[in-house]
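Lecture notes, structural biology module. Today: joint structure prediction for complexes of two components.
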Amino acid sequence: MTDSGNFHIPNDRYYDPVNHLWARVDSATGRIVVGLDALGLSALGDLVYVTLQPVGTPVRRGEPVGTLEAAKMTGDLIAPVSGILIGRNELVLRDPSLVNRDPYEGGWIASIDPTSWPKESAELIAGDAIPGWVKAEVERYQAQGWI
Amino acid sequence: MARVVVPLDQQSEQFQISPDYVRISMAAAIELRLKPGRLLRDCGCGCINLLQNYPEGCYANCSYCGLARERPGVPEDNTFIRVAWPLYPTDLVAEKIAQREATAGVGRVCIAQVQDPRAYEDLIDMTGRIRRASETAPISALVSATTLDQERLHAIKDAGVDIIGVGLDAASQHVFYQTRGRGARGPHQWDHHWEIIRQARQIYGPMKVNCHIIVGLGETDGELVDLFFQLKSEQIAGYLFSFNPEPGTTMQDAPRASIQRLRRIQLIKYLIENSNLSLENLEFDEQGAISRLDAPEIMVDVAVESGLPFMTNGCPDRQGKLACNRPYGSYRPGEEFRDYPFQPARDDLIVICREMRLDEVWSKLTPMAN
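The predicted structure, tokenised, for the full assembly:
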């Protein structure tokens, strides 16, 4: 776990450095479970609506797979990896605040059957690179006045 | 017997009541860093909007309001203008306001009353707490006229309030009766509201009193226009809101005003207030909707190009600039803007003009030749 200020970033997964999404390989299925990290959530605020494409939809890394709406902010949910949308967290769709309460476990948002994981995972932040990236991002968010 | 202290976050909100506790708008909570988050387009929130909290919610019964007495559910589960207003100790909020005032400055603070027997005394108390924490932050009071009289208006001013807002909400007496008065099993009376508005105008001064007016409660355009002229003649500000149905309220299924209608109303209000548009320049159809606007091209173009008619109406800061911009207060951030919490940009103006379809009613006057 990397802690920077009030932000807890687990080291056991990958991070999209632009959109602050995490991606974790489900070792049993090989699917990629996706959620929002603590910094991304801090910038969004309390989520009130989440929408997702239907299961079975092909998704491409960097393109929208759904929308996120907080009390005073909205934006697209950008796929961190390419593949087929294979799972949607229906609990989150019914109660988006679950993402704020438990972002790394119960608040996962979607799962994707990846088609280019070896290549695309290299574009994500992982392992030893996480602490430095988190530190830089916290400083950037502070400089912007977002946190 | 040992005294058991329940942590704040485990106490029911029914026991966290004013004056010791206060609700704060989500945008203001984000601005003061009481809540995480950002505001779409990083527009900032210029006014710290506060709302009294009581276990019963509000004793009034306005048919469009999320705090209405007869709305189902417990008050703490309900929303006010559709978004949850988080609850904090008043002294903590006052401290945050003081910190903000000492650094970036606070545009304005507004304390809103609900209809409750304690509301007046608590408004004085809460105003005092904020004033003691920050001697300089301008404070408005959004009052429930039904709880007030002239003496109380003076006392509110003495406590440190410089602007009074009155939630008139309805543009005409019959709409008021149906949505807020006896027709809605509510306590409010049109005549008493106007009595308080005019007394406040005498006590606080020109443009230091404002009426909130909601577009979409069943009024006609003609009634809105009449009200705009009335307010202008008495140097009372009118602040437009767009009706947004609250789930669980009597009007939950009522439609919102169309965006085309809202845009035209916003523009005409601006022209009346700033460009001396007169009633003779307007015509209405049998339903009371605007059917003709006679106005010079330059008058309309300058107003539209400025974007100002379409911005949120609200109390000013110390420099006279809009403070109370209520970001995404009348609509979700994912929806079309109803009012803009910032000056609309070029791309926004293109959208606004498309929404307004002004050419359908606008007859461009040409200057008379000598």
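Point to remember: The radius of gyration of chain A is 14 Å.
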